[in-house]
Each structure stands twice: as C-alpha cells, then as structure tokens.
Amino acid sequence: MIFHVLTIFPEYFRGPFEHGVIARAKSAGKLDIRVHNLRDWTGDRHKTVDDRPFGGGEGMLLKPEPIFSAVETIFSERATGMRDPERRVILLSAQGRRLHQAMARSLMGISELLLVCGRYEGVDERVTEHLADDEVTIGDYVLSGGEVAAAVMIEVVARLLPGVLGNADSTMFESFEGEPNVLDCPQYTRPAEFRGWKVPEVLLGGNHEQIRKWRKQAALEKTARLRPDLKDGPAAV
Ligand code: 9D3
C-alpha cells in the first residue's frame, strides 16, 4: 500500500516511520510512504499556501489552488475528472468524521491513500466539496494541523496490512483486535508483589475457568469506569 502525505512540514515525517513495525514494513516493501511539500505546487515567489477567509474572521486558511495542483499531479486521473476508487484522498481537519478502527479497516484494501494535512484555521471548503473523498479528524481536541493526524492514520492502517505485524492474512485481523466495545482486562507480570501491591491471587493459580471469569469481570468494570461511552456500541462508520 502506498501512502502519500501532502504537507507544508515534510520534515516532520522524517521521525515517526523510522522505528518499529512501520520501518520494517517499509524495508520489506509492504508499504511506501511518499511525503510531498505543498509549497512545490505554489506559483508565486513567496510560495504562498494560505490566505484570509472571505467574510472576515481570525487566522488564515489553506488556499485551494496548490492543493488541487498537487493532488491532480500525484493522482493524475483527477486532472481529467476521473476518480480511481483505488486511489483515495482524505483531508485531515478538525471538522471531519472521527477516525476509528472500522474506518481504518475499510481503508486497508485500497492501493494508494493520499492524506492532505490541514493547517492554520482550516482549509478552503472547495477542497472538501470537490477534491477530497472524505474529511477525517483523529479526535475531539485541538491540534495545530493534520501532520500528527496523518502519522496516526498511517500507523493505524499500516499495522493492519498483511505481513506488517506478522499478520499472515486478512482473516487474522479480528483476533488481533480483541473483544469489541470492551477494554482489555488489567494485566500483570512479575514480580507477584511490587512495593507491597499484590497481583490478584486468582491469576497466580492455575484455574483457567476462574481466571477467564475474573478477566471478563475486571474488563467490564474498567470499561464502565473509564469508557462508559463504549456501552453504546462502536463509533458509527
Ligand atoms: C475556532 C476553532 N478553531 C481553532 C481552535 C478550530 C480549529 C481549526 C484548525 C482547530 C484545529 C485546527 C487545526 N487542526 C487540524 O488541522 C486537524 C485536527 C485537529 O485539530 N484535531 C484532531 N484531528 C485533526 S486532523 C487535522
């Protein structure tokens, strides 16, 4: 799978993918991450990517022309009004649909994903209306732009790909994702007592039926305490 990132901060992406599972998947040729500098598609001396909002208001917006030029160069079929469903464009903005695991799973089949990183106060809405296939946020908090969100999306989708996490094929995914709508149960490793805090007795014995019951109950309690929202089911797709 090929990920493209369109950003005014291409240097940011030197870090996140040079470690761990993503770095290994890149070396193995299972995925490719191509970072594009939005300023390469500006036409003026100052390489202007932003402008003031019509109607007034705080801050600046990313202007449409460099984004359209970049996307129509990278996915050249779009320059002729065609859309290849295997080459998807996602705008990362604070106004999008919220990323969740099911959305990530729906993206892992496609061949190329182009992530457009929003910046400043936002992006000219014509990018959403006429260029992006979808507009996605990673959560309800304020970031300075879409770069961190792009790194998150790539990590979330890439680790699902066959051969990346040692996933043999797509039939294995479910077992990797655990029980739906319930947090993992609390887990402990050695020592059995640390600073006077003991590992629950039941886990030290070999009664697997009792252990199974304890884990289920502990997971439900923890879910009710930390993520009561999960009882309403998974986030809408
Ligand atoms: C007046 C409110 N605005 C500023 C506080 C809204 C706003 C505009 C632009 C908030 C954030 C941003 C920049 N953020 C992104 O481009 C972004 C983002 C995010 O802020 N949160 C979660 N996911 C993402 S993806 C892109």
Helical residues, percent: 25-40%
- Mean pLDDT across the residues is 94
Number of helices: 8
- Supply the CATH architecture of the largest domain: 3-Layer(aba) Sandwich
CATH T-level topology of the largest domain: Alpha/beta knot
- Structural class determined from secondary elements: alpha/beta
- SSE series: EHEEEHEHEEHEHHEEHH
Compact overview of the structure:
This protein has helices spanning 20-27, 64-74, 101-107, 125-130, 147-158, 173-177, 201-204, 208-226, and strands at 2-7, 32-37, 50-51, 61-62, 87-98, 112-117, 122-123, 134-137, 193-194, 197-198. It has 8 helices and 10 strands.
Account of the 3D structure:
The chain is of the alpha/beta class and 237 residues long. It folds into 2 domains: 2-158, Alpha/beta knot, CATH 3.40.1280; 174-232, Trp Operon Repressor, Chain A (Orthogonal Bundle). Helix content is 30%, strand content 19%. A 5-stranded parallel sheet has the order 2-1-6-5-8, with helices on both faces. A 3-stranded mixed sheet has the order 3-4-7. The protein has a two-stranded antiparallel sheet with strand order 9-10. The radius of gyration is 22 Å and the shape is elongated. The two termini are 22 Å apart. The mean pLDDT is 94. The chain binds ligand 9D3. Ligand 9D3 binds at residues 92-94, 118, 121-122, 137-139, 141-146, 149.
